[in-house]
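In the design runs reported in the main text, the only information available to the sequence generator was the tokenized backbone. The following block is the verbatim input for one such run; it is reproduced so that readers can re-run the procedure and compare outputs position by position.
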């Protein structure tokens, strides 16, 4: 699983219903991103909102589904 923010690919270590945990922590302002899920030969991608952005002091990132 990857979080794609402004073309940057960030590894997702865990995913919940309204958050992801990333590694390594990085800094991005609030905005939109994509989650990329790849299993074997299958790939799925969906748009999410980062209402609080990403802080380089935390690995937890809040998510909201983007319409």
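Verbatim output:
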């Amino acid at each position: 699983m990857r979080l794609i923010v402004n073309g940057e690919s960030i590894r997702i270590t865990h995913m919940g219903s309204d958050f992801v945990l990333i590694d390594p922590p990085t800094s991005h302002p609030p905005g939109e991103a994509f989650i990329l899920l790849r299993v074997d030969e299958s790939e799925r991608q969906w748009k999410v909102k980062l209402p609080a952005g990403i802080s380089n002091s935390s690995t937890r990132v809040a998510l909201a589904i983007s319409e």
